[in-house]
Structure formats: C-alpha cells, structure tokens
Write a structure and sequence with these properties.
The protein has 221 residues and is an alpha/beta fold. It is 44% helix and 15% strand. It is globular.
Length: 221
Amino acid sequence: MTDRTHRPLRIGILGGSFNPAHDGHREISLWALDRLALDRVWWMVSPQNPLKPVDGMAPFKERLALARVAARHPKIEVTDIEHRLRSRYTAETLPALVRRYPEHRFVWLMGADNLIQIERWQDWQRIFNTLPVAVFSRPSYSMKALAGKAARRFAKARLPGPRAPELADTEPPAWVFIHGPANRQSATEIRARTRSAATIDTKQRTGGRRMTKNAGATRKG
C-alpha cells in the first residue's frame, strides 16, 4: 500500500508478546511516529516468544484483542502477521515481511532493555542487517545497553540522534538511539499487580462469606 503520491509508507514494527499491551507500548509508538517521521506503527503480536515461558502467557487471541484496545490511535495498527507467516523467530519474520511488502520501508523498534539481551535471540545480527533499528531509552537500562555487545558490534552503523528522521530510508545496518519517553511501565509489573489484586479480591470474598456464615450461626443461637 502507498499513499496518493506513491511514496513508500514508512512503518515501525514493534514486536512482542504484549502480555498485556500497555501505555508504555503506546508511548514508544507515538514517540517513534514523531521522531522517526513514520506513517504507521505496527504492533506485531508474537504467538509465543521462545525466550518466555508458556506459563502465565495469555491466549494469543486475547492478547491481540487487548492490544487493539490499548493502541487507541489511527496510526497504530495491531497485526497477527507473525502468526500468519508461521515464523518463530524475529530473524525469520523480518525478511519474510520485507519480501511480502517490498513497497514499504520498515524500521524495527525496540527498548533499551531488549538491546541488552538481544544477543540471546536467534540469529540476532540478521535483524540489524535486515532492517534499520530504533532503540528507545528506558530508565535504568540505557547505559548498559549502549555498552553492550550489540551496540559495540554495530557501533559504526549508529546514526546521531538528529538524523533519526532519515532512518527509514537508510540501508541496514543502521540504527539510532532515541532518548525518551521515560515510561517505567512494563507488562511484567502489570501482570504482578493483576495477580496481587486477584489474590486480595479472593481473600476478601472468602472472608466475607465466612463473616456471613458466622453471623447466621449467631442469629440461630
């Protein structure tokens, strides 16, 4: 798909489990649209991240539906393309994406926390060699990310911040580090709060039933 002037669409790809999607994902997406001069951001929901346990992972269709609710923006689109491509690893998905949509210009979006551990990903260098990459700062992760293996390996391919709008049109390997936004929210913390709230609610309901039962016993006496 192209616009009326036939200019290729510049699309950021934010991949992940989205378990669940949250405002941090949305904030990075809005920042990417602005700083990278993108036309769209696609949230590519992974059926199952190979590095994450199945236990605690919500069903794929549920995560997909909740991501669409969380996106709340006409330029953020939620896609199941990785599921349809039947690929398991990002390094497999991105080349397939480029082949399927040769008319688009894609940029891989990721947080500084993922840059730290990307060396654990299957064939991780292929990601940098397939698409330009934009890395977004995250509190307490940025310094370590910039000193890490991936940043050192592709140091010569790093663009200065002011050139971020050029990234989508730059041949890979090319990447930029973008400072901000500073949203500390994470899916792990949200799941932990949800489990905690559910535990408290269960205890309250159980306690309420006991009080009602005891009150009934007292009335009978």
